[in-house]
Amino acid sequence: MRQIQFRVPIYEWNVTVITLYGRKDIKTISEFMKVKDFSPEEIKNTTDELVRDSVGGGRVYTSYNNKEAIIIIFPYENDASFYSTLNHEKRHLIDGILEFHGINDKEAAAHLDGFVSTIIFNNLGKLT
């Protein structure tokens, strides 16, 4: 399991992006999710993906009360599938943050996406 954490200062959100690599990450992700007060069902859904050796896909878990989001990227077949999944989940993150703040503006979405993309790009080696 690899991860990066960052803050989106303008909206005061904390974001964690996690890449999982297979069954070896079950214990680590379970413990992480327990510390973050995930429900037993959310933990089970995530670990079940690893138990099945599923490849591809991801999830975004959002805590609106804490203004925190966690992106989880499951094991991937190749770089293209990693980037596709990361961008898909990043879009859910952007939409969730803006929706929470009642913002429906394409320019605001583009700026937030650019900010998040830059942070992820600058830390990509820590995720892949």
Task: Provide a concise account of the structure shown.
With 128 residues, the protein is of the alpha+beta class. It is built from four helices and four strands. Strand 1 and strand 2 form a beta hairpin.
What would you note in describing this structure?
With 128 residues, the protein is α+β, with helices and mostly antiparallel strands. The protein has helices spanning 26-35, 40-51, 79-100, 106-122, and strands at 2-8, 13-19, 58-63, 68-73. β3 and β4 (68-73) form a beta hairpin. α1 packs antiparallel against α2. It is globular. The model has no long low-confidence stretch (mean pLDDT 94).
In helices, the fraction of residues equals 40-55%
Largest sheet: 4 strands, mixed
Q: Could you tell me how far the N terminus lies from the C terminus, measured between alpha carbons in angstroms?
A: 10 Å
Report the oligomer: single chain
Number of helices: 4
Structural class: alpha+beta
In the sheet with the most strands, the strands line up as 1-2-4-3
Instruction: Return the string of H and E elements.
Output: EEHHEEHH
Strand segment tally: 4
What are the segments in which pLDDT stays under 50 over at least 5 consecutive residues?
A: none
Rounded to the nearest angstrom, the radius of gyration is 14 Å
- What's the pLDDT, averaged over the residues? 94
- The shape is globular
Estimate the strand proportion: 15-25%
